[in-house]
Specification:
Blueprint (H helix, E strand, L loop, with lengths): L10 H13 L4 H16 L6 H9 L1 H8 L10 H13 L2 H11 L2 H12 L6 H17 L1 H7 L22 H13 L4 H9 L3 H14 L6 H16 L6 H10 L2 H9 L3 H18 L3 H7 L10 H9 L6 H13 L4 H8 L14 H14 L4 H6 L7 H9 L3 H8 L2 H13 L4 H20 L1
Helix pairs in contact: 1-2, 1-3, 1-4, 2-5, 5-6, 5-8, 7-8, 8-9, 8-10, 10-12, 10-13, 12-13, 12-15, 13-16, 15-16, 16-19, 19-21, 21-26
């Protein structure tokens, strides 16, 4: 008598076989029910059912049945994208590599591209899920994803439309997550390529502003991550030279405009100020070296990038903006004249209880400290040197009266001071600071 022993299936095997059965169903509704069950299993892996998901990933036939869902032309792929992103985060290294290879195959990757490129009220869930799946792929294996799925951030796709309608605002958090995945990748060349890609930093900062404007506070952590990415991937990136950073900011002035807009929210204002100070330190040019480093026919303003930053700041409305103005002018004294003559006079007055313009007080206070030192541009360029008193006396008294007057108080500052005094519209405190600045310059001349 011979006895046949059939292999017994465990509960885990039964559940995996049940999932595979739903994926192979000819009905899309049944297949989506299986996808929803798999998604719930992935979300509870840490506590309840870790064996089921890992057994599913270890079964090649089960994974193939799941990936075959991408070939169904009329299937709603939003749940499939979400479940695949969860599987990628849950899978162990060999299973994750297999899923990445299958995702980046010709069929699935084209479905992801099509989903990202088709944004409408009907396709919004699929587009959002596609963006998040792409972000997960970049985060886990940036090199492979960049090589096969998207070489750069897909700014040309419909998902990255500059101003989506109100019904499609949910796409903003998803595309911020995708840009963050590129800017925080483990490969420095991927990070540098994304940071220098035209429009990425602008779109990232503008989306961060729009997320904060909603006012519910649920995206504050995401916005903080975006600001950190700007600071680490751009301002503090050692792979980018100062010239590259200046070129990028000159071509994308929306970056500084959006960053200064973020100063209006207290939850992120200090963090934004730190990033702006870091940008100032990176892109500032010594005015003494400007003519040497540039071509003879280059007539652009030195430190024009920082002048754009000064134009966007509102020091009479917020104290933090006033501190940034002081920081920029102290770092680049050559901007004092254009700021006083072209920007500060057109700033709206503070409409609160304070009657003293913060910007004017801060600027003149800075100038008072600067005039107590040798010429500001030499201090900024680090090339100041001490002379013997006799040598300095001879050099000073050999000057003509006009040159000596310019040495004591530059002509541009005299013009600004007389214009302010003659306008009869400034505060008494402003006049006091102007007189203190003049006194500081005269005291310097007396010491010389």
């Amino acid at each position: 008598v011979s006895v046949l022993y059939w292999p017994t299936m465990t509960t885990v095997d039964n559940r995996v076989a049940s999932l595979v059965g739903t994926f192979l169903s000819a009905y899309d509704e049944t297949a989506l029910e299986g996808v929803e069950r798999l998604s719930k299993l992935c979300s509870s892996t840490a506590n309840d059912d870790p064996d089921v998901v890992h057994a599913f990933l270890a079964d090649a036939a089960a994974v193939d049945a799941f990936m075959a869902l991408f070939a169904r032309p009329k299937l709603n792929l939003a749940p499939v994208f979400t479940a695949l992103a969860q599987l990628l985060r849950t899978a162990r290294k060999p299973s994750c590599a297999l899923l990445m290879r299958l995702l980046l195959g010709p069929g699935p990757r084209q479905r992801v591209r099509d989903a990202v490129n088709r944004l409408s009220d009907q396709t919004l869930p699929t587009t959002v899920a596609g963006l998040r799946l792409m972000a997960t792929a970049v985060e886990l294996n940036a090199k492979q994803t960049v090589a096969k799925l998207s070489r750069t951030v897909p700014l040309q796709s419909n998902a990255f439309v500059e101003t989506p309608p109100m019904s499609q605002q949910a796409v903003r958090p998803a595309r911020v997550e995708l840009m963050l995945a590129f800017l925080r990748a483990k490969h420095p060349d991927v990070v540098a390529a994304a940071a220098t890609q035209h429009g990425v930093l602008t779109r990232l900062c503008e989306d961060a502003c729009e997320l904060l404007k909603r006012g519910d506070g649920q995206y504050v952590d995401l916005v903080r991550s975006a600001i950190d990415a700007v600071g680490s991937a751009f301002a503090g990136n050692p792979d980018l030279s100062s010239a590259q950073k200046r070129t990028l900011l000159n071509g994308q002035r929306g970056v500084t405009r959006a960053l200064t807009t973020l100063l209006a929210w207290r939850s992120v204002a200090e963090q934004v100020a730190v990033v702006l100070r870091r940008i100032v330190e990176e892109v500032a040019e010594p005015s003494r070296d400007y003519a040497v480093l540039r071509d003879a026919d280059d007539s652009r303003m030195p430190n024009f990038v920082l002048f754009v930053l000064l134009r966007n700041l509102r020091p009479k409305h917020r104290a933090l903006d006033a501190h940034l103005v002081v920081f920029v002018l102290h770092r680049c004294p050559d901007l004092c004249r254009p700021y006083l003559t072209r920007v500060a006079r057109r700033l709206p007055e503070y409409d609160g209880t304070l009657s003293i313009p913060r910007a004017s007080v801060a600027v003149c206070n800075t100038l008072t400290r600067l005039f107590l030192c040798p010429l500001p541009e030499y201090i900024a360029s680090g090339s100041a040197r001490l002379l013997e008193p006799t040598a300095k006396h001879n050099s000073f008294f050999d000057l003509t009266p006009e040159a000596a007057a310019d040495e004591v108080v530059p002509a541009w500052f005299r013009e600004a001071a007389h214009r302010h005094i003659g306008a009869n519209e400034g505060s008494a405190m402003m006049l006091v600071f102007l007189l203190q600045c003049m006194q500081g310059a005269v005291n310097r001349a007396a010491k010389v």
